[in-house]
# Entry
Amino acid sequence: MLTFVGLGLYDERSITVEGQKAIQAADRVFAEFYTSRLVGATVADLEAAHGVDIEVRDRAGVEQDPEPILAAAAESDVVFLTAGDTMISTTHVDLRIRAESRGIETRVIHGVTAETAASGLTGLQNYRFGKAVTLPFPFVHGGDDVPQSVVDSIEANRERGLHTIVYLDIKVDYVPRRGGPDDHEEFMTADYAAELLAAGWADELGVVVARAGSPEPVVVADRLSALAKRSFGDPLHLLVIPGEIHHVEADALAALADAPRSLLPAE
# Structure
């Protein structure tokens, strides 16, 4: 049996009760934290909270060499942990397909996602979101600006009146270029992302969500050019580019994100 468990958004307490029970019942527990991670808990914190040893796999160890995970799941109960909701990444879908093709029973225990948290914290209605995008560090795609594919997706959503979640790049196991929190990780910050996006939409409204799932998340709405000049503290951050704003959403952004009324539809 291979059980995929989403850990939620912030720390060792963010997991569901069902997920916690699955971990404690498992014979072996694997995890990956390259697609996302819990910034409020270390692997040691998770191990102490759940009373297990966790075998962390890097990208190559999941995507190119999943055999140790699959072989263990063929003979025993194995849990595979990820931050957020476990099936958001195609990496995890691929691992589940591999397991099923070998006759290994699989199960999914969901966790809270950044997408639902962004909607809940900002007051923007979940069904009014369009295609999400990921904004990469410029050095990743060899340019100095926003990739055209990101621009096209945001514009397509805006033309339909839909909001866009902009996930911000995470890089692990490399030498940092923008001063990450240690020698192997770097997280794009919302101010830097706003600076990149402001090149094309300086006066457009953006909404920053920082540390969703933590005890004190931060939600701030303003022009992208203004957001680019502010600091939003520790990661993880994301940005929302609103489309057409319903009057209830406008009230929520004013009350929950301190959005300037001049940037919102008239009451």
